[in-house]
Design brief:
single chain
Length: 103
């Protein structure tokens, strides 16, 4: 049995060899739903990430939006345990990342 070495102790070539299995996509057929424990951990990590974002400087803005868009956003927020502000913030982040504007 080979002795395991911490990734931090490996050289570049060794690290590439050790992690090459993670370079390929996982076929959909090989996936499965998260266990309740993993889902709980995932939700907790989202909350920690959200807490970090909330600690950053915030700015209040007033915008006019189409009422149907607001209704759909509110429905999505309720279904996913988010606030309206979180939905709008995530949408803006996604849009800016998509066009390559986020730094």
């Amino acid at each position: 049995m080979r002795k395991r070495t911490a990734y931090t102790k490996l050289g570049l070539r060794e690290l590439q060899e050790a992690t090459k299995q993670f370079d390929k996509e996982i076929p959909w057929e090989e996936t499965r739903p998260m266990s309740p424990e993993n889902e709980r951990r995932f939700r907790r990590s989202q909350c920690a990430s959200l807490a970090h974002r909330r600690s950053q400087k915030r700015k209040t803005v007033v915008v006019a939006l189409d009422s149907m868009l607001v209704d759909q956003s509110d429905k999505y927020a309720a279904e996913h345990g988010l606030s309206r502000s979180e939905v709008i913030e995530r949408s803006l982040q996604s849009a800016l990342e998509f066009v390559g504007y986020m730094h």
